[in-house]
C-alpha cells in the first residue's frame, strides 16, 4: 500500500489527506494540537497523530513509517515546524517531498498597510489610537502585549482551546478582551465583530485562501477601518499549489485522476519552437556529501543562481537569493524551466540543479542532461563534485582506484546483492554506496554467511553522514548485520583472503542439489556454455532447465547477466529454487510453464540454451526468431528423435552454418585398487547464431 506523511492542521492538508484516502493511499496526518485534529476524522486510510515534533522525532517517524512521499501542508506562518521538517529531510534518505502552498486571495488591498513582522506592527500600533481587533492568533500575542497602553486597547480573537486561553490570561487580557471562536468567519460576521468591538484597526496575517483573509479585509473596507497586514514569510523551498501536489502524488502512485479534476481557467502557454538564444544557463552541479564538501566553482554557481533545484535535504544547507524547487527529476524540472522561459521577457537566467555526490558516478546527471539537451532554450554545463567513495577512501587511508565500486541506491535489490557478494569475495577492496542502514544490515548478513562458507574474514569500514555530523568506524560482518545508525552510509569491504574468480564454467555436479531430475553433466555443461558465448549484460533463456545447473553456471559468470530458467515440471522447479538459494544466484528468475507459451512476455533474449523442448522445438525457435534477430542459440540432444527434430528445424529456418558436435564423456570410477573408465551417453551440442 502506498503511504504518505502529511504535516497538516490546515484546510489544504485535510483536503489532501481526504483526497488521497479516497484513492486508498494511506496517510499519516500530523497536527500539533487537538484543535488541528478536530476537523479531520480518522479512517481506514487516515491515521491522525497529535503533538509537536522536533527534527529528531520526525526522522524516527520517517524511519519507522518508510513513507513513499512527504508533504508539508502546514500554515504559511508555521516557520518553526517548517524548519524542523527541512532539518529532518536533510538527515533522511531522499524521498519525494512537496511543500503545499496556500493560494493567495484575490482581494483589493489598497486600504492595507503591510509589515514584515508582528514586532513591526506592534511598534506601528503604538503610534495610533483606538481599539485594535487582533486576529493573528495567540502565539504572537506576547509581542502585542509588551506595551501596557497597547495591551489595554486589544480585542483578541483566538481559537477556543485551553492553550490559547492560557496565553491570553498570561498576557493579562481581561475576559471582555477575548473572543474565543472557531472559524471560518464570513464577511458579515467580521463586520458584526468589528462593529461590536468598536475597533478602528484590524490586524491580520497574509494567510491566503482558506484563512479568511479576504473576508476580513472586505469587512474592514466596508466600515472604513484600517488594516495592518503581516506579510507571509518567504519560503526557503519553492512550493506547489494543491492541484500540483495532488497531480504529483497521483502520478507517483499511478492513480487515474481524470474523474477527480475540476475545471479550471488555466491556459498552458506553448513554447515557441524558434527564437530562443540560450535564455537559461543550466549547471548540473555535484553537491558532494553535504554543505561542507562542495567545490569552490559549485559554490560560486549557487551564489549566482536565480533558481536552484535539488532534493529537499540539499536546499536547506545554504543561504541564497535564488528561488528553490525541491525537484531532481527531469519530468518535474523541465515544465518549470519552460514556464520560466515563457515569463522571461529579456536577458537570461541562471539555473543550478544539485545532484548528490559526483555528477559522473551513479548520478542522475546523464539522464537529466539528455532531457535538457532537447530544449532549444537551454545551455548546459556539468560541474563535478566530491564522491563519497573518495571521502570514505580518504577516511580509511586507502586508495580506491584498485577497488570494485558499487551502489545499492536506486538499484533492484536482487541485482545489487549478487554484485556486492561477488565484489567482496573476489576483490581486496569493495566500495559500496548504500541507501541507508537497512542495506548495511543486508550486506552484513550476506558477509556473515560467506565467512562461514568460505572460511574468510571481512573488515568493513563504515562512514555515516560524511562531512555532516559524520561517524566513521571499522566493523565486523556481525556488527554490520545489526547496524541501525540513521543517515547516508558508504562502506568499504576489505578481504585479505581473496577467492580468485574463475572466468570459465567451474561448478562440479556434486555441488548441486539433485534428485531424479535430469541434469546436464559438468563436462557437457562447460562445453555448452562456451559454445553459447555469453556476454556481459546478456539476457539468457535456459529452456528445459531441469535442476537449474546450466542456469546457475551462466548466472555466476557475471552479476550483470540475467537468466530466465524455464521449466514445466513441478519437481524440477522445486530443485531450481533450491539451487538458486544455495548459490545466491539472485539474477536467475524461475519461469514455470512450457515454452514457447511462457516466454512471450519475457524480455527479448540475447542467448538461449535449450536443454529440453518437449517436442515443440520448431514453435520455440519460431517465437525466439520473431523476438530478436540477433541471438546465439545452443541446443543439447541425447535422443535420436530430438536429433531428427533439430535437423528438420535447421532446414526449415535455412540455418546452414550450425556447428554440430557429438561428445562422448568417460569418467573414471574406482573398482577396488583399479580405476575404470565408465562411459556416459553421447550428447549432441548444436550451436548457431541467428542474424
TrEMBL record:
Pathway: Cofactor biosynthesis; adenosylcobalamin biosynthesis
Uppermost EC category: transferase
GO aspect biological process, one term: cobalamin biosynthetic process
The keyword Cell membrane is annotated on this UniProt entry: no
Catalytic activity: guanosine(46) in tRNA + S-adenosyl-L-methionine = N(7)-methylguanosine(46) in tRNA + S-adenosyl-L-homocysteine
Domain of life: Bacteria
Pfam family name, one: Methyltransf_4
Any one Gene Ontology molecular-function term assigned to this protein's record: tRNA (guanine(46)-N7)-methyltransferase activity
Limits of the Tetrapyrrole methylase domain: 282-445
Keywords, in A-Z order: Cobalamin biosynthesis, Methyltransferase, S-adenosyl-L-methionine, Transferase, tRNA processing
EC number: 2.1.1.33
Biological role stated in the UniProt entry: Catalyzes the formation of N(7)-methylguanine at position 46 (m7G46) in tRNA.
PANTHER family: COBALT-PRECORRIN-6B C(15)-METHYLTRANSFERASE (DECARBOXYLATING) (PTHR43182), COBALT-PRECORRIN-7 C(5)-METHYLTRANSFERASE (PTHR43182:SF1)
Protein name according to UniProt: tRNA (guanine(46)-N(7))-methyltransferase
Organism of this sequence: Pseudobutyrivibrio ruminis
